[in-house]
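Entry 14. Ran structure prediction on the chain below.
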Amino acid sequence: MQNFVQFAIERLEFLRDCSGRDAPTVTTARAVSRIAASAENQVKRIEPALRSMEELEPIARNELLATWSRDASRPDIASAARWSLEQLESR
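Output, structure tokens:
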């Protein structure tokens, strides 16, 4: 149970920290948070999140994902950001 609670706190703090920023940052943060909460086989949750990021300007979006992927204080977000970046680059 502890891991689930910590995981939920990490995602909520991440969303809080990204709120109030520009729209592309908020959109990307929401998508990464959704992906972090999903298993890779949950296509119904992941595909809409990836599509929302695809609509954003690629350079800015990829810079955000790269920055978040290096955040050791948020390992689940970092993992989701890395995975998202890989998926978007392969499309």
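The helical segments are 2-18, 23-36, 43-54, 58-69, 75-89. Will compare against last week's run tomorrow.
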